[in-house]
Every structure is written in structure tokens, then in C-alpha cells.
């Protein structure tokens, strides 16, 4: 069900880097036909984001571009823009990640394309959004982590802020765009009309800061870096064990009692300093010291086993290699093989959602640059002479 839920829908994808390609990959995983439009000669920037690479492919490009075909079009040429219009005429979804105003100057804005196809769901992904003094500026994930304050809350107190390693703003923006697109497709069933979906890195970054914004409004205190800890509850952080680290999370008094029981120190749950969450937050340093004393001489596996047996939320601190070999990851079935040239055992992360109890099973290799240009043009009705003329003019490659 998951792999065919969008079957029959066509996506014209003029995005690159991370946010847009992640969005279109989600749609492709769900069964949509995704036509990736790339610059002649170089294509998506992430094709060159290496090392690391898998054979001749950038690992970043491989992670974000499965289940797509590739056509090379110069959208700055008159012929190229005409070709995009031909693609849009029979498409369902159009996605781009050009700076606000760039698509419009090329005749590829929402108002332009809906005249060609009133049923088109149009999605523009940008850095700062379509309005405001910074709207014309480019942006990348770490830049937006800094601008929206995400980076200011990440790291250890007294040390420089650090970037969240995962491109959570880029990928989150891709998710919001996909949600907006899917919602618009649902609405189209009733209205018969398309919609203009906007997503920006700015909105996503501010969205991820929702709890911090609310906390600041309530207390007037600027949220600060707390390492692995959390301001509003304790314990909710990493603890150093004899051979690694364990994250312990007690989101309420009942769970804190289970933490204490699992560590063989039930009396701590009755200590007046720690009996309620507000008291634990107030005395977080003393609490951390008490729990550290119970954890630091014991192996990670022992601590985790005791806490889980007691029903206390916890986790060993895994690196990527350890995470990938954990039996739970195998049972989840979220990491799947995607053989590519020069690497028969390459693996990728599947769509992180199940529909009807199953994940999408569609796993087609990311496309070679421009590999599908001729076949896509043939489907549009271009004959070989017209294709040759377009190639000679530089409109396609």
C-alpha cells in the first residue's frame, strides 16, 4: 500500500541539495513518478558533495534521490522553459527550491504555471520565506540553526554552541513541504483545483523551537545550553558508565521511582529534594551527582538491563555502526539494501513511516545525470529531430 499510494501522480522536481530532494524522495517512495530536472553538466550540487562517496556517487546524493528519473534542462533558455511548461501541463506536483522571485522571473511562478495546469499543486521551498527583509538571501541548514536559535541551545554550558549533526532543518522542511503537498492533493479531490504550498528553512527552525519559545514567554529567561539535559524535567540526560554512556529519562515521578528501583536506590525517590519533578529540577546538580555515583562503576549493558527490567526509560549511547547492528533496527526493517554501481551492498534508510503495517518497498537506484532526458521527451511527444535540435541549442543535455 505504501509504495503505491501516490501511484499515477507525477512530480516535476526542480530542487537540489537536501530539503527539496528529501521532499520529492518521500513522494517517490509513496509511488509518485518523480522527474528530477537538473542543470546540464553538473546537476544537483550534492552529486559533488564527496568524500564520502560510493564508487562515483556522492553518498549524500544517494541518500536523497532514489525512485527518481533525471532530465537535464537549461531553464535559463527559452526552449528549456518551454520544455518545463510541457512537463507541467500533465503533472500533478511541481517543486522548486529557487530563491523567491527567481522562478517568477523565469515564468515558472505559481501564477504562471497554474494558468497552464489549474490542478497543479505547486510547492516553493526557500531559506527565509517569500516575504521580509531577508527573503532574497540563500540559506543552508547550519546557517538557519544559528539564525533561529537552535544552535544557541545545543552544546554544553560554558562552551561554544554546536550544530546539531543531523540536517534537521533541511529534512524537516522537506517533511513540511510533503505534508503541505499531500494535504493539497486531498483538498483537490473536492475542489478540483491545485494550491500553492510554501515551506522555508526559517519556518521549520522556528517551529522546532516551539517549546523554547513558550518557555521564554513563561519565564523571561533565555534558554541556555544544557548538554544532554532538559530544562523542564530531571533526570533527562546522559550519565557516564564504566565503558560508555547511558541516557536516563524520567518524565514523571512514577518513572523516577522506577529509575531509583532499577539502580537499587529506591530511597532516593523519597528524598524531599527529589520527590517531585519541580524539586528534582531545582536540585538537578545534586540529583545528577547521586545517580552518577550509582552508574559510573557499572558497565553500560548492566545499567540498561537493570533499568529496562524496572520499566525505566533509558538507552545506551550508540554510534552509527552500533545502531545499525542492533537487533531492534533489524526488526524495524527501516534500513534496506539499495545496490548501486560499484557497491552491491549499499544500504539506505527507508521511509520512516508504515502504512497498512508495511513500509514502502520501492527502491530504485538514484538516477545518473540526465539518464532519462530522451525517454521523458519522447513521452511528451518530441521526435528525434526535435530532441537533437534542443541538444544542439544547449537547452538539454
UniProtKB/TrEMBL annotation:
Alphabetically ordered keywords of this record: Transferase
Record-linked SUPFAM superfamilies: CoA-transferase family III (CaiB/BaiF)
Keyword Transferase: yes
Recorded coiled-coil stretches: none
Classification via Pfam families: CoA_transf_3 (PF02515)
Signal peptide: none
Any one GO MF annotation of this record: CoA-transferase activity
UniProt keyword annotation of Transferase present: yes
Top-rank lineage group of the source organism: Bacteria
Protein name according to UniProt: L-carnitine dehydratase/bile acid-inducible protein F
